[in-house]
Amino acid sequence: MSEHYSAFRLLGEALRGHRGWRPAWRRAAPRPRYDVVVIGGGGHGLATAYYLAKDHGLRRVAVLEKGWLGGGNTGRNTTVIRSNYFYPESCALYDLSLRLYEGLARELNFNVMFSQRGMMMLAHGEAEMEMAARQVNAMRLNGVDSELLGRAAVRKLAPVLDFSAKARFAIHGATFQARGGTARHDAVAWGYARAASALGVDIIEQCEVTGFIREAGRVVGVVTSRGEIRAGRVGAAVAGHSSHLAAMAGLELPITSYALQAFVSEPLKPLVDTVVFSAAAGVYFSQSDKGGLVMGGALDRVPSYGQRGNLAVQEEVLGGVIALAPSLARVKLLRHWAGIVDVTPDSSPILGPSGIGGLYLNCGWGTGGFKAIPAGGSLFAHLLARGEHHEISRPFDLSRFAAGRLVDEGAAAGIAH
Ligand SMILES: Cc1cc2nc3c(=O)[nH]c(=O)nc-3n(C[C@H](O)[C@H](O)[C@H](O)COP(=O)(O)OP(=O)(O)OC[C@H]3O[C@@H](n4cnc5c(N)ncnc54)[C@H](O)[C@@H]3O)c2cc1C
Asked: 73-109 burial, b if ≥16 CB within 10 A, otherwise e?
């Protein structure tokens, strides 16, 4: 059992110098055998383990992480959460996630700082306004909230943008999803880890999977830097390293790995209370609770595993932000970094059996899987526990690439993560 976090508990600890807090999760040593082994201690792996224990009653579950929890993309992203996708399959997936986020802090008894400050996607011309109207209609038909805003409404929500006659990107309006927003990324990983550990899941850090144990063609366990571990089923949730891991099982995935960068400015007084996105400028930004502007843009152009920032993208992203809001031109950049994201040909995730018995895949979230952590975890747990798809994950099966049933969300998933 983990301790219950509350205002009284916080007050009590404040009075005795915060000396009574216990570690949020157990540091487990690997056991020889589990019912399910999940590879990857990012948000998706940890959420999967939590839902396996909570919804399916499985207790012999382990999460194997080669580094530290959330040290992959989960702790490196720009934290945007939204469900404003185009196709019904995607809306069902991402809106399930948004609904789960809405109750997540309470469910995990961990403040994930989910802030529904809304997300606006700017339209910079009449043609873009028409596309924005179609997007809003498509979302509403799919049962997801969305509004079409005119120029005055955008100005009211984000006065920091340039509305002058000389603006580089004239603002005509925007689509707006009020339920969208941001959350604290590593809190999501820690919250799931803590809740899973309390339900008996073994969380094993510094444990790299280096191979698979196969019997009669089936995956029956993993080889790790801390020894062999057998498992009834193995789930892989390793994002940018999915192709590399799958190759160890002799599988070639339709995934290309790229660096994606994020940028944070020095802290500023509150100046923008929503997430602002512009496809034309190629950027988006929001303001963190500490006051820093959190900014991002497109992928690096060349596939790579080099997990670091570079000046070319820095210039592109910061130039785009300044073009939208010239008053930010003298703000100083504090930090920038990169994560390695796993991009599929249709910019939709892969959730399902790998084609090799015993091995299941949760990957291909590309630039947008933070928002999908609760749904990805819950649907992957369903797959691993029952060996079959939930209706919402079925369209995202790996077989869609052979069958040509793509869920092409390139437009919704490009720069807008
Ligand atoms: C700069 C940036 C900005 C982003 N912005 C957003 C955003 O605003 N909104 C959004 O929704 N998404 C965003 N994303 C995407 C999002 O972060 C990812 O899709 C999501 O975090 C993927 O989660 P995950 O758990 O699958 O992977 P990860 O968090 O990457 O976790 C995978 C884990 O697997 C581990 N691992 C890898 N190989 C092995 C192995 N062999 N053995 C054991 N462990 C292994 C890694 O160490 C890692 O910890 C962004 C990503 C980046 C990089």
From this structure: bbbbbbbbbbbbbbbebbbbbbbbbbebbeebbebbe
177-188 tens-digit pLDDT = 999 999 999 999
Q: What is the DSSP string of 198-221?
A: HTT-EEE-S--EEEEEEETTEEEE
Between the CA of 62 and the centroid of ligand 1 the distance, in Å, is 18
Ligand 1 atom closest to the Cα of residue 376 is: 26
CA–CA gap between residue 309 and residue 296 (Å, rounded): 12
Q: For a ligand 1 pocket test, name from 238, 243, 336 the mutation site with the most ligand atoms within 8 angstroms of its C-beta.
A: 238
CA 270 from chain centre, in angstroms, equals 25
Alpha helices in 325-403 (DSSP H): 373-386, 400-403
* The pair of three-digit structure tokens given for residue 383, joined into one six-digit string: 């797959």
DSSP string for 248-292: HTT---S-EEEEEEEEEEEE-SS---SEEEETTTTEEEEE-TTSE
Q: pLDDT value at position 411?
A: 77
**Cα–Cα dist 108/192, whole Å:** 7
Q: What letter does residue 45 receive in the DSSP assignment?
A: H
Asked if residue 240 lies in contact with residue 342, where contact means CB atoms within 8 angstroms, the answer is yes
Are β-strands 218-224 and 33-39 bridged in parallel, bridged antiparallel, or unpaired?
unpaired
What tokens appear for 99 in the block?
A: 């609904």
d(CA 175, CA 147): 6
Residue nearest to atom 4 of ligand 1 (CA): 77
Whether residue 234 contacts residue 359, with contact meaning beta carbons closer than 8 Å, is answered with yes
Radius of gyration of the chain (CA): 21
Give 375's contacts (C-beta < 8 A, 6+ positions apart): 93, 94, 96, 97, 100, 392
pTM recorded for the entire structure = 0.98
**Beta-bridge partner residues of 350:** 363
The token pair at 236 is 């892989």
Task: Identify the pLDDT of residue 414.
Answer: 67
Angle at which helices 373-386 and 88-102 cross, to 10°: 100
The predicted-structure confidence for 49-63, as pLDDT tens digits, reads as follows: 999 999 999 999 999
What is the overall mean pLDDT for the chain? 96
Write the CB contacts of 302 (distance below 8 Å, at least 6 apart in sequence). 258
Are 378 and 47 a contacting pair, CB within 8 Å? yes
Cα 147 to ligand 1 centroid, rounded to whole Å = 30
